[in-house]
Amino acid sequence: MFRIAANNSVVVADFWGRQEGGGGGWEVHFRRPFQDWELEEVSRFLGYISTVKVQEGEDFLVWKIERKGTFKVKSYYRSLKEDNSPLRTRFFAWEAVWGSKVELKADGQFTLEDPLGQFIWQAQSGAHGVAYAAMLESGNSVLASEDSSYVWESFKSPADTILPTQVLEIGGMLSSRQAEGNYSKGRFQIRLVPDGNLVLNTFNLETNTEYDAYY
Q: What pLDDT, in 10s, does the model give residues 44-56?
C-alpha cells in the first residue's frame, strides 16, 4: 500500500481531515485502483485506522511496548517470547525459532544451527579478521574487526525481509520463501538493478535462471 499511496512522505496531520463540529476523519488517497489480491489488505488497513482518532499536537514515533515509547532491541527480544506478539514474525530475516543457536565460532565463522544442532546458515564474511559480533539498536547484526570496522552486516545481506532503516543497495535483491515454513530461496525476486530501476522477476529453481522482469 505504501508503494501505491498518492504521497509517500506525508505526516499524520496530512491524512487527517477536520470536519464541522470539531471532529475529523481519515483522507487516504491512492494513485491507482486496487487489484483483487490487494482488497483484503486494504480493508484491514482502513478498518484499523478507522478506530484511531487523532488529537491535536506534533507527530512523533512511539514504541508501544516500552513505557517511555523509545525503541530498544532488548524490548524487541522480550516481545518475541510472547506467543501472540505481533512482533513475533521475523528476526534475522527468519521467523524466530526458539532453541536455535547463533554462534561466532573461534575461527570467525558466524553460523545459525537449529535446536538439534543441524547447520542452517552461515554469514558470507570470509571469517578473516573477525574480532566480535554485535546486534545494533537498529536491528543490524554486524561482524567487526579489531578496529571496529564492519566485515559483514545483515543489512547488506537481505534475504526475504527488509527492516526499517535498512537500505537495498544497487545490485541488492530480496527473494521469496519457497513456503511459509521453508526459508529456502523461492521463485520470486525483487532487485535494484544497476540502472536504478526496482524490478520484479521470477526465478527458475531447477536451472538457477532469472527470467526477464515483469514489473
A: 888 888 887 776 6
